[in-house]
Structures are given as structure tokens and as C-alpha cells.
Amino acid sequence: xxxxxxxxxxxxxxxxxxxxxxxxxxxxxxxxxxxxxxxxxxxxxxxxxxxxxxxxxxxxxxxxxxxxxxxxxxxxxxxxxxxxxxxxxxxxxxxxxxxxxxxxxxxxxxxxxxxxxxxxxxxxxxxxxxxxxxxxxxxxxxxxxxxxxxxxxxxxxxxxxxxxxxxxxxxxxxxxxxxxxxxxxxxxxxxxx
Length: 193
Description:
- This protein is an alpha+beta fold and about 190 residues long.
- It has a domain at about 60-190: Porin (Beta Barrel), CATH 2.40.160.
- It has helices at about 1-20, 35-45, 50-60, and strands at about 60, 65-75, 95-100, 100-105, 115-125, 130-145, 155-170, 170-180, 180-190.
- Strands 2-3-4-5-6-7-8-9 form an eight-stranded antiparallel beta barrel.
- The two termini are about 30 Å apart.
- The model is unreliable at about 15-50 (pLDDT under 50).
């Protein structure tokens, strides 16, 4: 029953996020010259309520990809790799990113199955060569499967993670930093749907 409720809730949120936020901003076809557009941008630079800063923060949708494997490092010393072993560090992630949304499942720190869903955004990307790329981004959304370990309502918690990725051709590795003192690493395979 809980999985059905989670699926319905996640599907509803997916629809809302997709329709409200995942539409890429395109230039207006009505702009007749670059000088008008530049003048408008210069006038908005001093306005802190300008929505362009939110466009920069919201950035662009994350690349479509399969997410595989995940290992974590608990900086409080409770992990199995660098600690007393009370937390699981092998998380076996299986996830997908599609059109700026990410969803998946993994084994959490307490060895329970967890599910997540939310936007995946790419703030910065730099190509070193035609085949090698570095990305900085973030993900946030809903998380199910942690019980009383995290603040939750009906078993649903929220999460936020900063990501740093390195890619060679379609194969990549993402390093994630969570504000709760956990670092993660997982493989990514970029795909074109």
C-alpha cells in the first residue's frame, strides 16, 4: 500500500514539476535587434528581483542518463569504509534521469530499500575535449524509505544534493555532497532517448 501511495504521489509531482519548471527558456522570436536585447539586459542588472538570477540558479535540465551503483562516505565516522561500520556504504543505486527529472532506488545507510524522485539540474558544464566533460549540478526532491532516521511526513522526506561529474564520451562518474554529512559516488551512462 505504501509503495502504491508513493508511486501516485511521485507521478503527480512529476507531472507538476515537468509542466511548471522543465520547460527550457527560449529566446523570444519577436526581438528585432540585439541592441534592444542588450539594453534590456543592462537595465535589469541592478534589479535584485530580476528573474534572470533564478534562471541561472534553476540552470538547465540534467542530461538523460542511467545511474548505476553508489557508494557513500559518512563523514561522522559511522560508515563501513572509514568508520565503525554502523552505516552501510554500498548502496546499489539503480536510477534514471530523463528530461531534467531523476528517479531511482538504492539501499540506504540502514540497509533498507529507499526510493527518490525530483529534478536534476546542471548549473555548469565545461568540455575539456570533444570526449571529456566536467559538470556541476544539483538534485532535490522526495525520498521514501528512511523511516524515523530523517524528518518525514507519512514516510516521505525531502533531500538535496550537490553533484560534480566527470565524463568521458557517454560514461561518467558523479560525486555527490549531501548537507547531512554524506558524500556519494555513482556511475552514469549518458543516453539519448
